[in-house]
Design a protein that fits this description.
This protein has 135 residues and is of the alpha/beta class. The protein is built from 4 helices and 3 strands, in the order H-E-H-E-H-E-H. The protein has a single domain, classed as Rossmann fold. It has a 3-stranded parallel β-sheet, covered by helices on one side. Helix 3 links the parallel strand 2 and strand 3.
Length: 135
């Protein structure tokens, strides 16, 4: 995640002001398997997410088929309303991508002020955020 944030920040800085997007959405998708970073600590990732969210309005979205990964993501600063647990299946994956597309469109079109998944997106029975839709 740290490398992704740095790389995206660099790519955006190389664009002319007129070509820079007004809204940035960074999506992390994981199978939930631990990939121990040798470059970034949890505290560094948490600080990076907080700074980009508060100072530049970046939206961070987390998709995972693993409940423990969802909890880990929220522990480093991913907003629960922008985290989605999906089933480890073709149908579950397709549903997650459909939800991501719809909610990204809502955000980019200005229909919502920040990225968030709705309860209708939360089809996984174990989703810890099911029924906690925020507006």
């Amino acid at each position: 995640m740290g490398r992704g944030i740095i790389d995206l920040e660099k790519s955006l800085s190389e664009l002319s002001e007129a070509d820079r997007p007004a809204k940035v959405v960074m999506v992390v998708v994981t199978d939930g398997q631990e990939n121990a970073s040798r470059e970034f600590r949890k505290e560094q990732i948490e600080k990076m997410i907080q700074e980009k969210t508060e100072k530049e309005g970046w939206q961070f979205v987390f998709l995972s088929a693993d409940l423990a990964a969802i909890r880990d993501a929220q522990a480093v600063g991913f907003d629960p309303s922008a985290s989605l647990l999906y089933r480890k299946s073709k149908l579950g994956s397709a549903g997650a991508w459909t939800s991501l597309s719809r909610r990204t469109s809502d955000y980019r079109l200005g229909l919502v002020q920040r990225f968030l998944f709705l309860d209708e997106d939360r089809q996984h029975p174990d989703d810890p955020n099911k029924g906690k839709e925020e507006s």
